[in-house]
Each structure stands twice: as C-alpha cells, then as structure tokens.
Design a protein that fits this description.
This is TPM domain-containing protein. InterPro entries: TPM_dom. The structure is a single chain. About 60% of the residues lie in helices and about 10% in strands. The chain is built from nine helices and four strands.
C-alpha cells in the first residue's frame, strides 16, 4: 500500500514538472493588434519582416510619395512575420477608399495580400487583384525573385495601371502563362484540322464540320490562346508563335488521315 502511494505521488510530481517546464519554455503570446510596433514618424513602408534592403526601401518610399502626389492614390506596404500592428495601421495611415495596403507575410501559402479601397474597384476589378496575388506572391516566383522584388513588382503593376486609367488584367505575360496559351492554340488547331478532314470524294475540306466544331476550337485558340496574350502585352512575337502553333496543329491533324489513306492504297509488292 505505501509503495502504491509513493508511486502515485512520484507520477503526479513528474507530470507537474513536465507541465511547468513546458510552460516556462513556451514563447509568450503575441498580441494581434500591437500599435507599439508602429514607427514614431509616418512612413508608407513598415518592414517588420526585413524583406526590403535599405536602399530599395528608401527608393520605394520615394516612389510611393511621388505617386501619391501625382495621382492622389495612396499605396502602403506592411511586411510582418511573428508580430503585427494589426488594425492599428488603418488609423496610422488613414486608409480610405483610395488606399491600397499590401501586406507581405511569408507564413502563408502566398506571400502577398491586399486590402483595397472601394474606389479602386472602378479601375482595377477584383479579378485583377486575384491575378496580381497569384502571379507575384506564389512560392515559385518568390523563390526565384525574392520577397523584396515580389513586393516591388506588384506595386509597379498597380501604379502603372492606375496611371493609365485602369486595367482589367495584370500587365505582362509570364513565360509559364504564354506556354499555356501556346498549348491551347495548338490543341485548337488539331481539333479544327480533324474536323476539316474531307469525308466525301472530291471534297477538299469539310467546312461544315469545321463550322460545327468552331465553338470548341475557337474558344481554345481565340479566348484561351490569343486573348490572354493581346490583353497583357503589345509584343507581336507571342501572337505570331500562337498563330503558327495553331497552323501547325491544323496541318498535322488535317494531313495525317490523307497520308495514311495514300499509304494504305499503295499496291503491295509480290
């Protein structure tokens, strides 16, 4: 009996020691809203996560100040990691309907997040901000270009669009996106070529079938192939390559059945 009592006391003491040691090494809870993190002087960039080198941060501050004086739009940048000033930045910066707050936080799946004033949506729709976040804030882009360039390039896209009076899409055509448009252009050409294969004797092209399938290959080639290119860049080279890809896909799909028929119709050698 005494042995059991001693064992129970020893077990309870061990559990208490483990609990106290865990509590002692645990990091203190951090406030969600911590105005003490805000600088004493007003600045359009608060880099708590140290993503921006000093010279680049100073250059970005000058660009934001000049942009606000020229256009009246307010751009602000907050980078954070463990601690954040939270909602107190709204009063600190006086954010309103003409303000854009870029928040860079590396703890999530995407580096960038945007808090956008209502007046901005008249010039830059919600789809613009989704594309902006996914293009410049994804892990692959950040890994190749760094957090600092992801922030600066995203702000450059916003400022250039606002200077032009608005954009429906983010300017510029990334290589990955162009490759996707090229693939859809080639696929559209293949479908058009297969539909155009003559099905009657002395028929050069089955234009009726090409017209029937035109919604399919037209969407692939025009909407998904040429559309994203011409709306994001004025460069003619990717347009030419997509048209060439559509043409080659068409010719391969159109000529392949004819070549197979001609080969199968040749007399066999005895």
């Amino acid at each position: 009996m005494p042995n059991r009592l001693i064992q129970r006391l020893f077990t309870a003491l061990l559990v208490a020691c483990v609990a106290l040691s865990t509590w002692s090494i645990a990091s203190p809870a951090k406030a969600v809203d911590n105005p003490a993190l805000l600088p004493d002087i007003e600045t359009p960039v608060i880099d708590l996560a140290n993503f921006l080198p000093t010279l680049q941060e100073e250059s970005l501050i000058k660009q934001i100040d000049n942009f606000e004086k020229e256009t009246g739009w307010k751009l602000r940048v907050l980078t954070q990691y463990d601690q954040t000033p939270g909602r107190s930045v709204k009063e600190y910066w006086g954010l309103d309907d003409r303000s854009v707050l870029l928040v860079a936080d590396a703890r999530g799946g995407n580096l960038l997040a945007f808090n956008v004033g209502d007046e901005l949506y008249n010039f830059l729709p919600r789809t613009f901000w989704v594309e902006l976040q996914t293009r410049f804030g994804n892990l692959y882009y950040v890994r190749e270009n760094g957090e600092n360039n992801s922030i600066v390039n995203a702000l450059d896209a916003v400022s250039s669009c606002l200077r032009e009076g608005g954009c429906n899409v983010v300017p510029g055509l990334p290589r990955e996106q162009w490759i996707l448009t090229l693939i859809t252009s080639i696929l559209g050409g293949v479908i058009c070529g297969l539909a155009s294969v003559p099905r009657q004797k002395d028929q050069v092209i089955a234009w009726q079938w090409a017209l029937i399938f035109s919604p399919l290959w037209g969407i692939l080639f025009i909407a998904f192939g040429l559309g994203p290119v011409v709306t994001r860049t004025a460069d003619w080279l990717p347009v030419f390559r997509n048209v060439l890809g559509f043409t080659l896909g068409f010719l391969v799909a159109y000529l392949s059945p004819m070549m197979n028929r001609s080969l199968s119709s040749e007399p066999e050698m005895d």
